[in-house]
Amino acid sequence: MMIQPGGERSENAPGPRRAMVAVVMVAVLITIDLIIVGLVLSAGREHDLTIRRLETVEAAYAAEAGVNMSIRELMLSADDDGDGTTGTISDDGDDGNDPTLGNAQFRVTISVDDPVVGQSTLTSLGRSGSALRKMTAVVE
To answer: Cα–Cα distance between 96 and 119 in angstroms, integer?
Structure first.
């Protein structure tokens, strides 16, 4: 109730309770908005992490595929990818012609450790997006 200038009280005028309800409603709406914004931002971060994890797995599989392809070349004594060296995969310095596995690419280099024994080290580098994975294998 409010007191009017003439000293009379008005039953229709808003009182302190209505003002308090309005303040509480505004506070509740602000809280709900902040929760929603937090959820949206958190979902965006989760999405980025999921993409990075997927790229990491793709790069690892590509590196493994490179080692397998290189071992196949060594077993058959054939240069299947045409880079000029048996056992290497796309070791020609041109990233544009590297073999692909899904969204990932790979290349393999070879270094002869002991020519008498015939021991060599294969180094495969798989990459997908911003992820890089390196795998080495020693073969005789």
So the answer is: 30
